[in-house]
Amino acid sequence: MSIFSDNFLWGGAVAANQCEGAWDADGKGISASDVCTGGSHTRSKRITRTLEPDTFYPSHEAIDFYHHYKEDIALFAEMGFKVFRFSIAWTRIFPTGMEETPNEEGLAFYDRVIDECRSHNIEPLITISHYEMPFALTEEYNGWSSRECVDLFVKYAVTLFKRYKGKVKYWLTFNEINAGTMPMGGFLSLGILNEGTTDFTNQIDNPQLRFQGLHHQFVASALAVKAGHEIDPDCKIGCMICHITTYPMTCNPDDILEAQKRNQILNQFCGDVQVRGEYPRFMDRYFKENGLVIKMEPGDLEIIKEGCVDYYTFSYYMSNCASADPELEKTSGNLMGGAKNPYLESSDWGWQIDPKGLRYTLIELYGRYQIPLMVVENGLGAYDKKEEDGSIQDDYRISYLKKHIEQMREAVADGVDLMGYTPWGCIDLVSASTGEMAKRYGFIYVEKYDDGTGDLTRKKKKSFDWYKKVIETNGEVLE
């Protein structure tokens, strides 16, 4: 018998802005991602307020899931997916975010995607907002720094809950909501664009706007949870955290305190608000020491308390180390890096590979929150090479995923209530942080390249059949 439950949700994950393309089709408006240029491992992508001629915007075509969704979902079904995590593009439903009436063509597209999933017995797991807020809201309000976005988001979420009632059981409100605690999250997550900002990675930062925007997202998420439960009492609505697991670099108490502080701000803060329904006390000192004053409307804290999520999901790619010594060698990571851990290997992009850190993280999270957990992003971004016969022998990806699933098994044996696993980029897509196609995650190779060329042909990698066997055996056969 498998250690995973019989109803364990095996699947994969993508995001609309990284895979759909069709950026201006059927009434869709311009999203924050649509004004981001291509980048590379060595060159950052840029944010342009207006679309520039002769400039490559990778989200505009991406891998054209919009026109290939039937083919792609059939491939997911062939692997045996029980669940498919994807996001809805806000601007397909409300092109500027400010319309009173939703765009029917956008709603109908997701009807087709959801129905296609269900025809293959795949549960949709939908992220309502995944790094693609309407760019018009950046221009009009400077994104989530303004309170106006709360009601606009709730209108959008309610539209989805009503439209897809009975067809979608699992929802997430905001992808990696804790990105708002980090400088890179200002535009990526919150749609906040400060004067002079053009570099996507190294933005001109305003922490006051970021944390105010994050508060607005907390309120919006809680209101959406309340509304979703009223509209469809059978649905489950979760949070999604970018978990930046952080260890102390040494047993020096200064390193231990530094790691604890980073874990509190980066990982625990948003989880505590969305699961426990209250701001943790440690944020009082953080706000005071950083000169931050969060403006709250009467009733905000009550709304947050009443809108707690049903389950906790998170992304896990790597771990970091924290040190009081600023001179230590640094490593890269998802949204932010840390001190380099000498005991770990790194990916092609410098992200340190730490499968046992996933077990540690699952145990820590379940001990803190005692609600079902789900790993909704995990994977290896790598350069995939085609062999002479056209095959992609991605044994490195198989090794990475195998080791992480092994540690998930250990965590379940330790008593963790783990409900599912959706590796990131189950089909190759555009990298959110760099705008590259070369950074590939998928079980399925897509003929699309960083210069925009490629005929979008889909091809199974070696990992495709491997993951199919993993699902068939409910995680027992990993060789």
Automatic annotation (TrEMBL):
EC number: 3.2.1.-
InterPro entries the UniProt entry points to: GH (IPR017853), GH_1_N_CS (IPR033132), Glyco_hydro_1 (IPR001360)
Pfam families, A to Z: Glyco_hydro_1 (PF00232)
Molecular function via GO: hydrolase activity, acting on glycosyl bonds
Keyword Cytoplasm among record annotations: no
UniProt keyword terms in alphabetical order: Glycosidase, Hydrolase
Family per similarity comment: Belongs to the glycosyl hydrolase 1 family.
PANTHER family for this protein: 6-PHOSPHO-BETA-GLUCOSIDASE, GLYCOSYL HYDROLASE
UniProt protein name: Glycoside hydrolase family 1 protein
